[in-house]
């Protein structure tokens, strides 16, 4: 008996251990299968999860929509007709849940099936207190049902958001139009949202993906009403602006864009997109989708894909750089947008346009791009657009956004088709937060060293640098004139048009002197070459020892306040006219010796011959106009009066030579002869406001 009792006790202990192990495994199963979701277990290997939860407030009540998914892990089919659900609020009041679609009730072994529901609850109930109860029908029970378990509505929504699950609205088209098959159903998902300032109010654009969940081709009926509703129940009509007229093939997806004006104060809130039957007196809401989570703006440098109507990615677009400059006229913004084709086929460029808007202000200003762009992008190619706009004073730079719009269409086969595409309506394609933009003040240019590249926002791979800033005497008007020599370099592999740069010189007293560019400049700059362009500034009150701010502008803009491109601080050159080195960019001239001699005999008229030897060094291989800069030799008497003048250019047949040079002053009168006559050397520059000169040295 003792042995029998001991054996029985061991068998019972073993059975208990096995049962405990099986229970532990069963408890772990839902955690392994759906770690982020609540799970409710039915009989055996059947469990349920709560999916695709949406909540929206109506005029008189609220609607919670959801799907219960049955997961059959067993070896035989399960009939869902044996189960049901209801919705319970915080007061314990049950609300019936109605199936909103047709589904096959028998779920095969190893499969899962979703069953969509909707339940109406009291207005203002909210999601925190709502629970979905799963029960099994039981005739023997007092209520006819046995509760299996409950789901938290808010927990299910939070879990879906954490997983990145996109909610889906299912709309029965037969409930809107009786001529459409009752099985016809379209599923809607929210893609990208764009909040833009239009016509003095905030407008939200929503790109939806509409998928035909039926077995036959359908077109959305005219009676489908789409509305936007906030948490307080305010409702505005939404307009389908693209894609709603397309035929949807079975299983096929199509982009559909809707827009709605957002009431004041609601631009930053959470909204619901309602799909309703608008054919009756009172619109009946069929389903809804939450929006507001897809409005995250891109950062500078962040690329996002553009998609065609079927959801296929075509090109990528990004704001490659942005500069915000505070000026006396307001905020000048320049944003460069790069479109890239990373696909294995040629892509059509969308017609892009842009608007600068401020999140906290009623400000929306069109941004202009004056460039010309190709119709297509080949594989691996990119194209850059440069948008500029002037915003009023008082707008905070960290509130700015770039709203980018693009036309729509598939690949095009001709330039004419591409032009037609660009003239079609434009829709938002990217919102860029400009808080990462480079900011500067127009009057805060950095100290500059001559010859260094200046970070100007120029098209292509063009570089600009100031090689010389000198003060000259204007022989026509008697004013001092500053001349800046600017070197423009084409670092690209193709020829580029010379940029239309405007310059201004500002002193510390706030006086601004506009620059006048030389006439007759070249129009195109070859690859790898540099060109010198001069700018002159008439300065009645020039401080020769002061520091100045040299401002660069877009010279193609004829407005009173053209777009700024950058600025630097520098001073006039401090040349020593008593030494034997003359700096005349791009040349360095070192005088070796000189001699002023009587040429021939002294009579009623006579001539001087100036001979001199120099070392002529060209510092850089920069192209310049032959007529812009020259050396002038003035023969002066002991009183400083000019007797005669001669000039030598730096280019041409009579140019200044490296080595020996000679200049003749002829037809001089005998009374102009003096043993103390000498020659003063000047650089002269031809400007649109006359010839200007600066002294380089003297030859005895």
UniProtKB/TrEMBL annotation:
Q: Which PROSITE patterns match?
A: PROKAR_LIPOPROTEIN
Signal peptide residues are 1-35
Q: Which UniProt keywords apply?
A: Signal
**Protein name (record):** Uncharacterized protein
């Amino acid at each position: 008996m003792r042995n029998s009792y001991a054996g029985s006790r061991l068998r019972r202990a073993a059975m208990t251990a096995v049962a405990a192990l099986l229970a532990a495994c069963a408890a772990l199963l839902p955690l392994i299968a759906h770690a982020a979701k609540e799970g409710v277990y039915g009989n055996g290997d059947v469990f349920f999860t709560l999916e695709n939860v949406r909540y929206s407030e109506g005029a008189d009540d609220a609607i919670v929509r959801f799907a219960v998914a049955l997961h059959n892990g067993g070896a035989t089919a399960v009939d869902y007709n044996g189960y049901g659900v209801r919705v319970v609020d915080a007061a314990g009041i049950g609300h019936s849940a109605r199936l909103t679609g047709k589904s096959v009730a028998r779920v095969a072994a190893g499969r899962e099936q979703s069953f969509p529901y909707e339940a109406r609850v009291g207005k203002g109930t909210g999601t925190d207190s709502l629970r979905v109860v799963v029960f099994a029908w039981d005739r023997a029970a007092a209520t006819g049902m046995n509760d299996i378990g409950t789901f938290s509505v808010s927990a299910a929504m939070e879990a879906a958001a954490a997983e990145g699950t996109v909610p889906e609205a299912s709309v029965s088209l037969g409930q809107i139009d009786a001529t459409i098959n009752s099985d016809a159903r379209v599923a809607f998902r929210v893609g990208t949202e764009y909040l833009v300032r239009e016509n003095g109010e905030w407008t939200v654009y929503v790109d939806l993906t509409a998928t035909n969940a039926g077995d036959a081709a359908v077109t959305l009926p005219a009676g489908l009403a789409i509305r936007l509703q906030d948490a307080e129940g305010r409702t505005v009509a939404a307009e389908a602006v693209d894609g709603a007229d397309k035929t949807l093939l079975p299983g096929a997806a199509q982009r559909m864009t809707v827009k709605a004006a957002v009431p004041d104060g609601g631009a930053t809130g959470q909204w619901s997109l309602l799909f309703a039957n608008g054919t009756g007196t009172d619109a009946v809401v069929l389903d809804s989708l939450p929006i507001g989570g897809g409005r995250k703006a891109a950062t500078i440098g962040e690329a996002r894909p553009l998609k065609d109507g079927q959801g296929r990615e075509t090109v990528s677009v990004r704001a490659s750089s942005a500069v915000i400059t505070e000026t006396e006229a307001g905020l000048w913004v320049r944003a460069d947008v790069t479109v890239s084709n990373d696909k294995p086929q040629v892509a059509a460029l969308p017609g892009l346009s842009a608007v600068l808007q401020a999140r906290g202000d009623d400000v929306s200003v069109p941004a202009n791009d004056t460039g010309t762009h190709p119709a297509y992008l080949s594989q691996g190619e990119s194209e850059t657009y440069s948008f500029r706009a002037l915003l009023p004073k008082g707008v905070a730079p960290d509130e700015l956004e770039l709203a980018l719009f693009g036309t729509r269409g598939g690949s095009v086969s001709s330039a004419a088709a591409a032009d037609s595409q660009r003239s079609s309506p434009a829709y938002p394609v990217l919102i860029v937060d400009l808080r990462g933009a480079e900011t500067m003040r127009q009057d805060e240019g950095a100290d500059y060293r001559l010859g260094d590249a200046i970070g100007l926002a120029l098209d292509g791979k063009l570089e600009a640098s100031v090689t010389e800033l000198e003060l000259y005497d204007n022989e026509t008007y008697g004013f001092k004139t500053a001349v800046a020599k600017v070197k423009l370099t084409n670092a690209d592999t193709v020829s580029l048009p010379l940029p239309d740069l405007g310059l201004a010189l500002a002193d510390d007293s706030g006086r601004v002197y506009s620059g006048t560019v030389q006439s007759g400049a070249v129009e195109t700059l070859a690859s790898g070459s540099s060109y010198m362009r001069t700018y002159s500034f008439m300065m009645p009150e020039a401080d020769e020892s002061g520091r100045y701010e040299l401002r660069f502008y877009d010279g193609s803009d004829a407005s009173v306040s053209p777009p700024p491109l950058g600025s630097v601080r520098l001073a006039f050159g401090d040349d020593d006219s008593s030494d034997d080195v003359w700096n005349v960019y791009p040349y360095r001239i070192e005088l070796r010796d000189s001699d002023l001699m009587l040429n021939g005999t002294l009579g009623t008229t006579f001539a001087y011959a100036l001979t001199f030897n120099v070392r002529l060094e060209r510092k850089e291989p920069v192209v310049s106009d032959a007529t812009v800069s020259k050396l002038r030799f003035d023969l002066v008497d002991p009183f400083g009066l000019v007797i005669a003048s001669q000039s030598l250019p730096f280019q041409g047949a009579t140019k200044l030579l490296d080595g020996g040079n000679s200049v003749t002053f002829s037809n001089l009168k005998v009374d102009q002869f003096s043993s103390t006559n000498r020659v003063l050397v000047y650089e002269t520059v031809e400007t649109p406001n006359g010839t200007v000169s600066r002294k380089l040295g003297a030859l005895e």
